[in-house]
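Q: Fold this one first, please.
A: Sequence and structure below.
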Amino acid sequence: MRIIPIAALSAGLLLAACDSKVEVTSTLDDPLADRIAIEDMITRYYASLGAGEPGAFGDYYTEDAVFDVNGVVSTGHEEIEALYAGMGDGDGVEGDPGVFHMLLTNPVIDVDGDTATASFIWTGVLNTDIKAPPQFAEQGREYDLLVKQEDGSWLIKKRTVIADSGMPDQFDKTYQPRMDYDITAN
């Protein structure tokens, strides 16, 4: 039984909860600890959406990462950060649209040594008025290929995001439905 590594990981997660900038890493050779570190990293990534700092997203990717959002492919930190900087341009939202939250569900994370795959369903929820019910704004899937760094942290090497509803107009020309996507292919 691995009580000490689990206790150490639990303490690390409690410390991480106190400071959202703390990265959860796994220095243990433990697939469960790696899985927790990956899920935490992806959750922090989505928590940063709407924070107004598109440059921070490059920190989640390897230098040569490939990011495919509904057929718009960006390679490397600069292109990925530029994509985020341009998100929302021309989306038809005027004024203050309210408070937006991104929910992640159905995580499937498979760790194989220093590589891993992850998939999630994401749902964008818009709260326009404190008295109004929330509105589902968008939903889709994401698929990630991740690599473990020497310091135990995980970075995204390849990410594919596919909208299933509520897709912004900026992706109309590049979107192709991909129901059974395999992040490890090609």
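Q: Good. Now the second chain.
A: Here it is, same layout.
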Amino acid sequence: MDPATPLNVIVENIIEMNELFTEVAMGDGLAPLLVLVGTLFVVFSLGVFGVLTLGALGSLFTSN
């Protein structure tokens, strides 16, 4: 099996997902607002858990 094939599939899926989310985000009604709020929620969650993870890693390498 070609090692680049799974990577190509992942890249193609990301491109297709981006196009589908763009269609939804440009839709009517509350769709753009819901996409924005969902994005902010995911970014905030990733930021909080990223900081917590960095703190946990930092506590492994520091002495009390």
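Q: Anything worth noting on the second one?
A: The radius of gyration is 19 Å.
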